[in-house]
Amino acid sequence: MPRFTKNEKVLKTSDFKNLYKSGKKVFSKNFFVVWKNGAARKVGLTVSSRVGNSVARNRIKRVVREFFRSNKEKFPLGQCIVTAKDGAGLLTNEEIKKEMEFLLKKI
Predict the structure, then answer these.
(1) Boundaries of every domain in the chain
(2) CB of 36 closer than 8 Å to CB of 107
(3) 97: exposed, middle or buried (C-beta count within 10 Å: 0-12, 13-18, 19+)?
(4) Which residues contact residue 103 at a Cβ distance below 8 angstroms, ignoring those fewer than 6 apart?
(5) pTM over 0.85
(6) Which end of the chain is more exposed for a tag (fewer CB within 10 A), N or C?
(7) Are 10 and 16 in contact (CB under 8 A)?
(8) What is the C-alpha separation between 67 and 88, in angstroms, rounded?
(9) Is the CATH number 3.30.230.10 carried by domain 6-106?
(10) Interhelix angle for 93-106 vs 54-70, to 10°?
């Protein structure tokens, strides 16, 4: 199984800020994605404490990372940030994956 390496993560605060300012945005009911074209696929995740407790937040991040690992070719080249909205903590793993597929089709 392909790994989610450090080279595939958006880590710097400045990268997050630049993406939020100048990136293209796509929304669904429980998530939104901001992306900007580039040379390599990179994904960043943000889940605020309003989504739920730490168990719910970490589960969402784990499911989205797994979705990225198994569907890298569907993600656009460039940097991408996936942000969970308030209701995302109540979703099942399958519902999270379906919403991610829906968002990638919109991109």
Answers:
(1) 6-106
(2) no
(3) middle
(4) 26, 28, 31, 32, 33
(5) yes
(6) N
(7) yes
(8) 15
(9) yes
(10) 50
